[in-house]
Amino acid sequence: MTDKAHILLVDDEPGMLRYIRTLLEVEDYKVETASTGEEAVERVQKGSRPDLVLCDLLMPGIDGLQTLEQIRHLQPGAKVVMLSCVGDTRKVVQAMRLGAYDYLTKPFQKAELDAVLNQCLGTNQQNYAGEVEELAEDQFFVAASPIMRKLRSEAALVANVDIPVLMLGESGTGKEVMARLIHKLSPRAHRTFLKVNCAAVPADLLESELFGYEAGAFTGANHPKPGKFELCNKGTILLDEIGEMPTTLQAKLLHILQDGQFSRLGSRSVIKADVRILAATNINIPEALATKRLREDLYYRLNAFTLNVPPLRQRKEEIPILLKHFMSRQAERYARAPLPLTPDLLQACMDHPWPGNLRELSNFVKRYLVLGDEKLAINELRPKSDGSGAQFDTAGKASESSGGGLKSLARTAKDGAEAEAIAKALDETNWNRKQAAALLKISYKALLYKIRQYGIAQAKGHHKLSAGA
Hints:
Radius of gyration: 26 Å
Helix content: 40-55%
């Protein structure tokens, strides 16, 4: 940096104020100090425009939360980092909700301060953009865009606070990856992480899967079996597609969230389990609450902290990194040489809306690697066309183009009709995909595949169709 950033430091402890000021001035930052929240707010009111505010959480007078709120009101774009003691975790979560960018736990080392400064002021943005954070087999986290860097900061914060986290976002955006990141950054990292897909397990089996059962609980239960909550004691459990969980089970889950207790099927004895619950869904929350598909009391228990995972189209800076990483992974898996990612291919990928998000991008790389035809891969990302020179999206709507033939026209018409039938069934069942699959007389997994294939997404209670792979 040629011009060092301007930092406003707010702390009521003179020793801490001197210590942090010294660390900052060693790096030639322009440092302004305030010993109270009132003084800090007054400085901003009088025109001070710091690039970053470092603010103590516990102060006499107006505390750190009020200072944060007032500074953000006066300067909405202000980046504020909270300085907190270990026991202040719930207040730190509240600070993040009020717009705090990050936090530091006192006492901290210079390296920790430098890392936060780099994150907030972008001094290591280029290096950070290229990082791929490995989490598990086939699970990795990339944050090359501002929105994802902010999300990672929030995940790192909430990882240290033992509260439920609700992850929202479209299908394929990486909600499970976010859950694994929280687990990895939490004190439970060395314990078990389990994922349960509430939509993939039939409703009558989901209860025994989660809570276990005793011998004789039902026909075929010859031996007792522990459930996921028992197996995950002291660890983290991800309840994926939580919106698909039957409401009767939602009541039992609420009981665990309230007092950490449950009973196996067929048992009257109470089992205690210390489990961190993370939940993920892509449903329309207001609609699910209105239709009683999601219990309101459960939602507010799970919603202690919410992370909204953005779709790939809102973080396109990451597409080149993701392409490269997926290509490397797939090439290793299929024992093939990685294929080149040419400028034309990269541009086609940057222009594509990726309705299936990271899952669609991964499948695209896999097909490109297997087929080895760049031209075919690029054409796959373009709207389909018929022989008359008209292009069709997956809903069968025409637009300009050329090429194709009778077979292409028939396939496009079939795809369009199929997509419309699926969207209609989803509308009729209020986007209950299990009911929609039964209505269409196809399997649940087949329906999920076709929703991704045709890029059918829920929007304001109605379906919308967009080009998909």
